[in-house]
Amino acid sequence: MSRLLIVDDEERIRVILKKYAEFEGYETDEAADGMEAVLKVRANDYDLIIMDVMMPELDGFTACREIFKIKQIPVIMLSARGEEYDKIHGFELGIDDYVVKPFSPRELMMRVKAVLGRRSNTAAGQGEDSKEVYRIDGLVVDCTARTVMVDGERVNMTPKEYDLLFYMIRNRGIALSREKLITEVWGYDYYGDDRTLDTHIKLLRSSLGPYRGYLVTLRGVGYRFEA
Q1: pLDDT, tens digit (0-9, with 9 covering 90-100), for 116-161
Q2: Which residues contact residue 93 at a Cβ distance below 8 angstroms, ignoring those fewer than 6 apart?
Q3: Radius of gyration of the chain from its Cα atoms, rounded to whole angstroms
Q4: pTM of the model
Q5: Distance CA 93, CA 72 (A)
Q6: 114 or 17, which is more confident?
Q7: Ranges 60-64, 83-87, 161-165, 199-203: which has the least confidence
Q8: Strand duo 3-7 + 48-52: pairing
Q9: Residue 31: left (phi > 0), alpha (psi -120 to 50), or beta?
Q10: From its phi and psi, is residue 113 left (phi > 0), alpha (psi between -120 and 50) or beta?
């Protein structure tokens, strides 16, 4: 049984999410602010965190930054702010999903299920493939070790940036539709905004620096890795 940590300064929201989560069979714990969440993560094990952004004591972004120093736990972030900047900031930190308030608790539970399912599949597949390394000019992508080198310098990316790059480079030269990329990288049961793909492409281009041109935009279709 998966255990969730629900972090929100509004008790009403915590009560609603606790009710829906327990109905889906999850164990739950609560925190009223980011500071309490960090302390609970230090003392307990959780499979996923639902984290609000705007909170007293410690905001959600800062709390995630501190939590990731302790443990790598999937995070779904909640916010009343849906600006692209906030989403990019969250994804750069390494969160798994970003949900804008108001939201459907039932849809949120489906996102929880999707994130936990993807993490489970990733863990199950580790070590099954032989060493897989791609070298293109000064870009070295090691899918097995999950590392990316740009002109001899290691680049740190978010988990989803790695997943997106690995999928595209394995299918280099092929036109990949937006639907195909979302299905293969985020999962067939992904319920988020498809603009999340564009946000991650932007992040990935920034990470690749001089090799950003390898990610080609196909207007009206999607993207292609071309080198």
Answers
A1: 887 665 555 554 445 788 999 999 999 888 889 999 999 988 888 8
A2: 61, 64, 65, 68, 158
A3: 18
A4: 0.66
A5: 11
A6: 17
A7: 83-87
A8: parallel
A9: beta
A10: alpha
